[in-house]
Specification:
By secondary structure, this protein is mainly α. The chain has 11 helices and 5 strands; from the N terminus they run βββββααααααααααα.
Length: 300
């Protein structure tokens, strides 16, 4: 029996029972029916439930309702966005067959497992270094490039993570020195980070040279077309001017004095580039501290 609709107003329609002419209906969410309260006629069946879904169909569903109702966020660094279906692990003898399938499944997703491990380590290190999410994502992007190219195969993973964070910090304008990174990653030495950084720099330069050959341009032209991401700043070491503002901010120095120290640092960088000063080969942090100390003495 067809259901009649009597239009009421311009934006809504009022339902009318085709059997008794009643207008009072109730929705049975379990059965998906809309039933007339007057005569029991099923006016509409198999309707779509538009209420909020509080189930996530996950292993931790029994812990309570999930108000987000959206599941996990997609991960652009995973091959499938991190949204693939996995195999759960069952405790006891009942999970023998499923656990065997889980092991086989994990063997086929080596790249994703490597990215998951890298994501945990890089996120924890960036948090200890007080670096932004942009730096973390840039570091993971660098690690994915390195992992896919197999440029650092056989290197210590933590040293690779540290080098990726170093490159990402330089890209995003918030660099950290090798010493600062080693302070939060005691298992990694500055020598290991430097070697990994050199390998990453070499890998990106080869990619730029290949693009330059394809585009018929020189290396400088390829860098200009590529822009700041992903490799234009990868080959630049940390300079003293990159550290002066951050050091001055931690010391609580006035902004005017901080800008003065930055200008002095730029001039010192020009002299160092011409190798006209004895400190050209010194550590950037040492140069920054010396420049800050000199400026503070002048403004004392």
């Amino acid at each position: 029996m067809d259901t009649l609709y009597v239009p009421v107003g311009a934006l809504r329609q009022e339902r009318v029972c085709a059997d008794c002419g009643g207008r009072d209906f109730v929705e049975d969410h379990a059965a998906g029916d809309i039933v007339c309260k007057g005569c029991g006629l099923v006016a509409e069946a198999h309707i779509i439930d538009e209420r909020s879904e509080w189930r996530t169909f996950g292993d931790k569903e029994k812990e309570g309702d999930d108000p987000s109702r959206v599941g996990g966020a997609s991960n652009p660094f995973m091959n499938d966005g991190g949204l693939s279906t996995g195999i759960g692990k069952l405790p006891g003898a009942a999970g023998g067959q499923y656990n065997a399938l889980l092991r086989l499944h994990n063997r086929q997703n080596v790249s994703d497992r490597a990215m998951q491990t890298a994501s945990r380590e890089v996120s924890a290190t960036c948090e200890r270094l007080r670096m932004t999410d942009a730096v973390r994502n840039s570091a993971l992007e660098t690690y994915k490039d390195v992992h896919d190219a197999k440029a650092l195969k056989g290197r210590t993973l933590k040293a690779v993570y540290a080098a990726c964070i170093f490159v990402a910090g330089k890209r995003e304008g918030t660099p950290r020195t090798f010493k600062e990174i080693c302070a939060v990653m005691p298992d990694v030495s500055k020598v290991d980070i430097g070697r990994c950084f050199t390998a990453i720099d070499r890998m990106y330069k080869k990619q730029l040279q290949w693009k330059a050959v394809q585009q018929g341009k020189d290396l400088a032209g390829a860098v200009a077309l590529e822009g700041a991401r992903p490799v234009a700043t990868a080959g630049m070491a940390t300079a003293a001017t990159d550290l002066i503002k951050r050091f001055m901010s931690r010391l609580g120095v006035d902004t005017k004095v901080s800008l003065m120290a930055h200008r002095v640092g730029l001039r010192a960088a020009e002299l160092a580039a011409a190798e006209a000063v004895p400190w050209a080969s010194r550590d950037p942090a040492t140069q920054a501290c010396a420049l800050i100390y000199g400026v503070l003495l002048i403004n004392k």
